[in-house]
């Protein structure tokens, strides 16, 4: 999840003050769209090479209301193209693990410690379809690199596999297309199967605060000033 720093916890005290600075349009937008966000299913972009795919998975996550995308950077840096993402990177929490600072095992452990079972999306191992995947408990779906597929540790540590059946000569879809298909199908299931998938009231407030800090001009500096004034 989005890491909470002491300053972030302090900023929660000024939630109402920041909210009053939003336009009426933004207030309505934030309070409406937060009802569609979920952390019940998260996504992992494993060492993506093309910024088109990096950008597309972030944009798709936002479009379908997914709140969190984990990223492992190994050989390649995760780049988001503004023209493709259309600003979606402001609305989706990305948690980046850089290999060198951590290894794959540590990254996987951190994701599982966050409460997720790890599900690898791959056409090369028999996996369940998106319609049959068990989503009663939180899962994180790992999407492999376009060039190399999944790192071996992802496959070794996966708690399960998911696949989209192919009926043509091509053995697989583009990684961002695969993510989009899975995101749509799984969100539809979340909304129809009686699963408690929405954010808690506390997490809704935290997420709107994150959005406000990213969108209100000089919001961080204002919060720092308010904290300093209170300290004095």
TrEMBL record:
Keyword flag RNA-binding: yes
According to UniProt, the name of this protein is: tRNA (guanosine(18)-2'-O)-methyltransferase
InterPro entries associated with the record: Alpha/beta_knot_MTases, SpoU_MeTrfase, TrmH, tRNA_m1G_MTases_N
Instruction: List the Pfam families hit by this protein, alphabetically.
Output: SpoU_methylase (PF00588)
Highest taxon, organism lineage: Bacteria
PANTHER family (UniProt xref)? RRNA METHYLASE-LIKE, TRNA_RRNA METHYLTRANSFERASE SPOU TYPE DOMAIN-CONTAINING PROTEIN
User: Its Gene Ontology biological processes?
Assistant: tRNA guanine ribose methylation
Q: Boundaries of each tRNA/rRNA methyltransferase SpoU type domain copy? A: 45-184
User: What is the species of this protein?
Assistant: Schleiferia thermophila
Q: What job does the chain carry out?
A: Catalyzes the 2'-O methylation of guanosine at position 18 in tRNA.
Gene Ontology MF: a single term:
tRNA binding
Family to which the UniProt record says this protein belongs: Belongs to the class IV-like SAM-binding methyltransferase superfamily. RNA methyltransferase TrmH family.
Protein EC: 2.1.1.34
Q: Which residues bind S-adenosyl-L-methionine?
A: 164, 173
**UniProt gene name:** trmH
Q: Which UniProt keywords apply?
A: Methyltransferase, RNA-binding, S-adenosyl-L-methionine, Transferase, tRNA processing, tRNA-binding
Quote the catalytic activity from the record: guanosine(18) in tRNA + S-adenosyl-L-methionine = 2'-O-methylguanosine(18) in tRNA + S-adenosyl-L-homocysteine + H(+)
